[in-house]
Amino acid sequence: MALLRSQSSLLWFLVVAAHVTEAAERPMKRMTLTEDESVRESKGDTFSFRSRKTSRVGAAAGSEPGDVAAAFRVPTLGGEFIYQPGALKGSLVIHAFTNKSGFLECIWSSESSLSSLVQDLPDSTQVLFLSLDDSAISDALWMRDQVQRSAMHSKKEVLSRMHFSPVPVFALGNWIPRVLYSWSCMGVSCGLSQAVFTSQGWKMPVIIKRLDARYDWLMGRWAQTSYQLVDAGDACEPSPSVTAAVAWVSAGSCSFFTKVQNMAKSNASGVLVYALPGNPLQDMNCVGDECYSPLSIPASMVHLEPSVAQALRFGQLVNVSFQVTPSPNFFIGIDQQGALAEMGWFLYPTFSFINWQAQWFDFNMDLWTKLKSPARVVSVFDKVQMQGDKGAVATVDLPLGLLDFNTLELDASLSCPGRRDSSCAQWDHTVQLFVCCNPLSVYCNMELGRWITAFRRGIGHWLTDVSPLIPLLDSNKCTFTMKTVPWAMPWIVSLNLRFSLGNQTGDGAEKLHPFRVTSLYSGGTFDKTYNRKYQPVKFLLPASTKKVELYAVITGHGSDENGCGEFCVTSHHFLINGAYNNTRIFDSAGTALGCTTQVKQGAVPNEHGTWLYGRGGWCDGLQINPWRIDITKQLDSSRVESNTVVYFGLFDGRDPDPSQQPGYIIMSSFLVFYK
């Protein structure tokens, strides 16, 4: 664990300032989180300030996400950083530090947080570090020192892409302060969380920064009231004196879990842990099996405040309340296309959230590159509102000669009614796309695509290959319906169909086309009766068939006592001819960071809810990719005997048998025949 800024750093600050002043693991729960939670010349590490006439700064720049970021210049410890639209090949993240934030103190003092920044920042991303405070020079030196120390043993070169400015935000003279202040927020990672102490005889309250315990460990929240504060020592043992009070507890000697558990047993209203002198605030969290013991009281960490400790030592009555003071935004981004971008919510103090957003910037740039490839594009929805029982509905004409194509991709995006994430729907929901081209056809109203909405972020954009389902488009005029649960807040949907020739093995390779689809099984309630309804399906191979695929889209939802089907590991089996078991296992379900690994594939990062956890075949803010298996060699190609397929789904290797609130499986599955 890194210490706070050392005296040597402060001494360095004094030397530099002299030059400047000459001129101037746990159980998984679905959660959504609410919001109430001049010219500068540089030479080495010496800076001077002088005034000159300047043109209007950022006059051409807007201040909303998606607006083009105007050019700017910022002095840094390594020289002047110049941003010109189109000149930067990758993305840029701008971070504004303030020592008034306990969250930011922790993110900069945690070894694991700093290591993640050094090790996992995408090679395409640069970061500009600023300070909101008068102490910007010492802040820049300290931040650079923290990163350099963490990078000492790293084989990855990253320092050349990190830029530390000694100029406070309020003196930048460009558009950056406007965006930081206009995009202010009061989420988990922003706003100034504070503890307010009062005592009889004090002329003024004592207000200090605090860091709340990990959001998904302790579900209790501080009430808008005043609590009595009672000294409980190190809280490594229960203490009856804290009943109905907030326990004032020293760090160390036992785990955070032990402290909070003992105070909960003592009927405390909450726990306030103070850091030992010289130590930074820490991310209070459970470890291992501790996370499965529910605790209902809130807890936070603060620095040791001498006046509070002295008052308690002399037996004075001390009260404490809790508040969040609005602040500027601490993080904004500029993507590869030069557009301003929100960075979402950092759910706990680690720079990993910068890395995940930067990974998504890379994904989005790659997606736009793919969309430039040749294709016949049919627009279905263009920024249409999707809400209610009807959803979004459109009837479109399809191009003639569909048999000339063997690739169909869904170019889909979900945005929000407003420009900011704050206008987005708060919860995650399943979105399905149904198609009907002939009301009399067996293919009418079959599912063509599936996505999961993000927790309150409107940047989702995906390209999903559904080529095997081209036979569902059995007429030149088709009606498409895209919908989610009717009670969900509105989303703005866009959808293009992209027809092309692709997926060939090389020049001269035979081009196979799907020509028939046979529907197999759907899902249902994942309980002890789940598998009883599934019977073997017999089928013959149509004439001219050269390839057969098993195609399935499967997702698990709901949560019984085992977390099924969203947070438990389920397996889904398609048994061909009693001999070939084709199995899909959701082995990342329930893992703490399972969906963070999918950001590079398009999962929306930094959502306003528990997006990080692995799920049963899906992630928040991501398309559901079809599961495709070539089963041609598993089949009897003669027409004398039929083939059989049967499906069953298991939890922990056996039939599901929940005792309460069973989850459910949403499934579309098909046999696809090619010729």
Q: What global shape is seen?
A: globular
**Rg:** 29 Å
Q: What does the main sheet amount to?
A: 7 strands, mixed, barrel
Enumerate the spans where pLDDT stays under 50 for 5 or more consecutive residues.
1-24, 36-61
Would you report the number of β strands?
A: 33
Going across the biggest sheet, name each strand in turn: 8-9-13-12-11-10-14
Mean pLDDT: 90
Q: State which percent range the strand residues make up.
A: 25-35%
Distance between the termini: 62 Å
- Counting DSSP H or I runs of 4 or more residues, the number of helices is 8
Global structural class: alpha+beta
Q: Roughly what percent helix? A: 10-25%
Structural description of this entry:
It is a single chain. With 675 residues, this protein is α+β, with helices and mostly antiparallel strands. It is built from 8 helices and 33 strands. The chain is globular and about 95 Å long. Mean pLDDT is 90; it is low at 1-24 and 36-61.
Name its key features.
single chain, 675 residues, alpha+beta, seven-stranded mixed β-barrel, five-stranded mixed β-sheet, 33 strands, 14% helix
Short description:
This protein is α+β, with helices and mostly antiparallel strands.
Secondary-structure map with pairings?
Layout: H1 7-20, E1 39-43, E2 46-50, E3 72-76, E4 79-83, E5 92-97, H2 102-109, H3 111-120, E6 126-131, H4 136-151, E7 162-168, H5 176-182, E8 192-199, E9 206-212, E10 227-231, E11 246-250, H6 256-265, E12 270-275, E13 299-303, H7 306-313, E14 318-325, E15 331-334, E16 340-342, H8 352-370, E17 376-386, E18 392-397, E19 407-415, E20 430-436, E21 446-452, E22 460-465, E23 477-483, E24 491-500, E25 514-525, E26 537-539, E27 547-557, E28 570-576, E29 580-585, E30 622-623, E31 627-630, E32 643-651, E33 664-674
Parallel strand pairs: 5-6, 6-7, 10-11, 11-12, 12-13
Antiparallel strand pairs: 1-2, 3-4, 5-15, 8-9, 8-14, 9-13, 10-14, 15-16, 17-24, 18-23, 19-22, 19-24, 20-21, 20-23, 21-30, 25-33, 26-32, 27-31, 27-33, 28-29, 28-32
